[in-house]
Amino acid sequence: MPSTTLVFRRFIRACSGLLLAAVFSPAFAGYWTGVSRSLPVSPLGNTVALSCHNCYGASNAATTTQVSMALNRGLDLVEFDLTLHADGQVYVEHSDSESAVGTFASALANTALQQSDRMLFLEIKEGYSTAAASDTLMLGVLRAIRDWGYATAGRPVMLRAFMDGNNRHQHLVRAQALLAQSEFASIRDHVRFHALIESDIRNRMRTAKSLGFQGVELEYRMASLFGAIDQAKLLGLGVGVYTTPASLGELYLSALREDVDFITSDYDRGATPLATSARALITEATSLVHMNTLTQTAYPLTYKRTGPTNYAVAQSGTTPTLEVLSVTSDEDRVGGSMVFAGAQSVTTWQADNDINGGFLVSAVVNFDDLTSGATAAILAKSDAGGFALEQAGTLLRFGVYVNGGYQYATVPLSSLNGTDSYFIVGAYDGDGAVRLWVNNVERTPSVSVTGGVGLNTSPIVIGADPQGATDRRYFFKGKVQQVMVQRWRNH
Predict the structure, then answer these.
(1) I need a surface site. Which of 5, 97, 105, 159 has the fewest CB within 10 A?
(2) Is 2 part of a structural domain of the chain?
(3) Residue 315 and residue 433 share a domain
């Protein structure tokens, strides 16, 4: 490479690193700083608030029942959807039906909710037409929040709306203007604004920032999810996902707990509480490895094991190079990523599952080779035991070593591309199928098996397959930004 080109590339990388450092804000450091409620904290130190999705019913009594469930099960955010009826009142419902449903004022008058430390998570469902019509709606919302004693120091209220063709986020802009009025002096510092974004995501995220919003919410199955999550963080916005499902909901909560600020979920909403609450899933001491290179622009890299302590990875002749993408790049990823060119790897530590259990693993990956058919390990501890997340022939697969052999969940590599980044999750809990998700959509599981994953003495390795402590094979080609490994059990 000509020396001038090399110097230029180093200059661009250095500037990218400075840009990353410059844009961090207190919101990135901790979105929930200053909140009075004791929110669930992951084993590695990330605070995650849990939202009760559609926490209401078709009547005031039904809404009270749903809120009681949220309080009893330790959820942090109570989500009400709000519309304006022709009578000028604000109602709690999913769409503007103009039928007899519970009022917003009645929902807020719930003594148990008032006296709790739970925060309101309010979504404006009404389409935006004019500023005058919006002001009627938002004055009703803000006055009810104020009059019933919400939006206080340590207990913010989140006002939320889709940023879409219906311009519902403009209701939030009107609310910002209304809060400047003297009648709202007591609550104006305790109201936050979130945009829910499903299209033109990168531009709309920048718009949300420029409008003075504090957070964004993303559909949990979107393409290049972590690129959007990380862009939000670099912009200083709180970021979360919606709406993770009830079925296998424990997996989504556990897989995302280290990388987002809030999760809206349908998990544990049945009449009988589940054995493991959503809160317990966030705090459960299952972590083995977590690395996210978003803010890592130079060696030594760091990763976490079972707690918040950072462990260093020194640069060597066999470690990957680093790529740093600006927050303005609109690539599938932003920030730092490890670049594996077919001969590099990162070794973490020798960490095993519980003897009768399995593993939950994830990786954020951009592929450089989808057609060679070569076996290539993305994340592995697969030395006659453990697990492997890898390419093999025409498949991406996640396998675990059970009862003397590997069992795999699979997805065709032909369904992937080299442009997007993929959030890949594999799981086996010791009893049942081995499962694989790509962008939070489940693919083809294995047959059902029973038994703990076999133990070995090889470390968990990124970018290659371990053969003992130091030997490596099956090298990966592509970029990896995040990896996670947890012990996993039947919940």
Answers:
(1) 5
(2) no
(3) yes
User: Are residues 241 and 336 located together in one domain of the fold?
Assistant: no
For residue 225, which of 333, 329, 322 has the smallest C-alpha distance? 333
**Which whole-number Å values give the CA distances from 320 to 82, 295, 311, 315, 479, in the listed order?**
50, 16, 17, 8, 9
Digit-by-digit pLDDT tens for the chain (491 residues) are 333 333 333 334 444 444 444 434 333 459 999 999 999 999 999 999 999 999 999 999 999 999 999 999 999 999 999 999 999 999 999 998 989 899 999 999 999 999 999 999 999 999 999 999 999 999 999 999 999 999 999 999 999 999 999 999 999 999 999 999 999 999 999 999 999 999 999 999 999 999 999 999 999 999 999 999 999 999 999 999 999 999 999 999 999 999 999 999 999 999 999 999 999 999 999 999 999 999 999 999 999 999 999 999 999 999 999 999 999 999 999 999 999 999 999 999 999 999 999 999 999 999 999 999 999 999 999 999 999 999 999 999 999 999 999 999 999 999 999 999 999 999 999 999 999 999 999 999 999 999 999 999 999 999 999 999 999 999 999 999 999 999 999 99
CA distance 293 to 289: 13
* Cis peptide bond prior to 300, omega within 30° of 0: yes
Asked if residues 43 and 286 have their Cβ atoms less than 8 Å apart, the reply is yes
Does 367 lie in the same domain as 253?
no
Considering 255, 284, 313, which residue would you say is the last residue of a domain?
284
Query: What DSSP element (H or E) covers 73?
Result: none
- One domain, residues 276 and 306: no
Same domain, 234 and 358: no
The upper half-sphere exposure of residue 468, i.e. CA atoms within 13 Å in the direction of its Cβ, equals: 2
pTM of the model: 0.93
Q: State whether 211 and 339 are in the same domain.
A: no
What is the rounded CA–CA span in Å between residue 430 and residue 488? 8
What is the separation of C-alpha 235 from the centre of its chain, rounded to a whole number of angstroms? 16
Tokens coding 346: 């990162």
Residue 196, helix vs strand vs coil: strand
Please return the burial class of 344, using the count of CB atoms within 10 Å of its CB with bins 0-12, 13-18 and 19+.
buried
Q: Looking at residue 377, which CATH number applies to its domain?
A: 2.60.120.200
Number of structural domains the chain divides into:
2
User: 168: which residues sit within 8 A by CB, 6+ positions away?
Assistant: 124, 125, 126, 127, 128, 161, 162
Domain end (from 284, 301, 317): 284
List all residues 6 or more positions away from 9 whose beta carbon is below 8 Å from its beta carbon.
Answer: none
| Amino acid letter, residue 269 | R
Q: Which domain holds residue 368?
A: 290-488
As a whole number of angstroms, the distance between CA 325 and CA 343 comes to: 23
* Same-domain pairing of 272 and 326: no
Question: Where residue 119 sits, what CATH number does that domain have?
Answer: 3.20.20.190
Residues with Cβ < 8 Å from 194, sequence gap 6 or more?
A: 158, 159, 160, 161, 213, 214, 215, 216, 217, 238
